[in-house]
């Protein structure tokens, strides 16, 4: 861990020294995805953020991007932002490790669509969650992006009902909510980091996995999996965050620039995710994957089998009011749209 922290500090210091003479304020931002904006929502979001901030500040603020896990995993990045070694990051599922209340977004089948999720996250509920996590962690959420709806893939059979998952070995990210979700559906949850996933599928350590379509395409998992079930069990948001001491140290004008750029960046990330998901389904089909779209009754069976038990489990870890508030916010958003 000390070596990892030293490496992060050296990279950040090198980036600072290269641009300190040209900018009054230097901000480093790291993430684990590719920087290719055409395939990476985090890459697109951070590039837009950099361009807007540097342009609007006339170079007074410079932004250096460290993609592809150069500064460590999402967990490493969050710790580095907390400690002020890295200024900003954009992460998804790992955020609930430092702010457990963020796991409320991992309630299975909570969001019926992306527009509803955007309405909830950009509205009072998302603001309340951001403020709570700021007070708990010292990290300020500037905007919400999108990793997208997660779906099951596997190499064994078509999955159309909860019982089809029983006994299957499913890779999940190292996240306790996802592990519990698999237990509820009587599957064997196998936490594996993303870089190790292709090898785990190739060697049959696991039968399947769950990820958004865009990730499945980007990692070419269609070469290793035969079936995908579009159940959208969890909507994964991206959290675009900044060290709060860094943020509060900026002038009012510079904070306004950062805020505006972050909102645009989150929106751009969502757009790239939506484009890649829509195009990705065609890619999966062309590469031989059998795509299963669930009927409303089939989807309701998954929701009934998992959501109440998951809410009960989450209630033992965080205040149940978070679940109640999230569900009421979703209902309100559906009525408003």
Automatic annotation (TrEMBL):
InterPro entries: DctP_fam, TRAP_DctP, TRAP_DctP_sf. Coiled coil: none annotated. This is DctP family TRAP transporter solute-binding subunit. It comes from the Bacteria. Residues 1-22 form the signal peptide. PANTHER family: 2,3-DIKETO-L-GULONATE-BINDING PERIPLASMIC PROTEIN YIAO, PTHR33376. The keyword Signal applies. GO terms for cellular component: outer membrane-bounded periplasmic space. The keyword Plastid does not apply. One of its GO terms (biological process) is transmembrane transport. One of its GO terms (molecular function) is carbohydrate binding. Keywords: Signal.
């Amino acid at each position: 861990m000390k070596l990892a922290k030293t490496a992060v500090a050296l990279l950040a210091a090198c980036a600072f020294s290269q641009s300190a003479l040209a900018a009054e304020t230097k901000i480093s931002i790291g993430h684990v995805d590719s920087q290719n904006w055409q395939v990476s929502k985090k890459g697109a979001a951070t590039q837009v953020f950099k361009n807007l901030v540097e342009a609007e500040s006339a170079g007074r603020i410079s932004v250096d991007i460290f993609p592809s896990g150069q500064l460590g995993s999402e967990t490493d990045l969050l710790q580095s932002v907390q400690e002020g070694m890295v200024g900003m990051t954009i992460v998804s599922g790992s955020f609930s490790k430092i702010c457990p209340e963020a796991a409320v977004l991992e309630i299975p089948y909570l969001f019926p669509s992306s527009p509803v999720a955007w309405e909830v996250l950009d509205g009072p509920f998302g603001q309340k969650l951001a403020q709570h996590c700021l007070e708990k962690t010292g990290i300020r959420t500037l905007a919400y992006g999108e990793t997208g709806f997660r779906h099951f893939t596997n190499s064994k059979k078509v999955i159309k009902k909860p019982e089809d998952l029983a006994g299957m070995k499913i890779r999940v990210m190292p996240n306790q909510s996802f592990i519990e979700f698999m237990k509820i559906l009587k599957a064997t949850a196998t936490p594996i980091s993303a870089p190790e996933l292709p090898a785990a599928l190739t060697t049959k350590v696991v039968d399947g996995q769950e990820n958004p379509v865009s990730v499945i395409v980007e990692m070419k998992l269609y070469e290793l999996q035969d079936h995908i079930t579009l159940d959208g069990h969890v909507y994964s948001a991206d959290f675009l965050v900044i060290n709060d001491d860094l943020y509060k140290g900026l002038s009012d004008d510079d904070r306004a620039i950062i805020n505006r750029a972050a909102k645009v960046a989150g929106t751009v990330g969502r757009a790239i995710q939506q484009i890649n998901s829509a195009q990705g389904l065609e890619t999966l089909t062309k590469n031989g994957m059998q795509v299963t779209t669930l009927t409303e009754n089939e989807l309701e069976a998954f929701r009934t089998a998992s959501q109440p038990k998951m809410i009960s489990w989450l209630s033992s870890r965080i205040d149940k009011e978070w679940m109640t508030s999230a569900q009421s916010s979703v209902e309100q958003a559906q009525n408003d749209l």
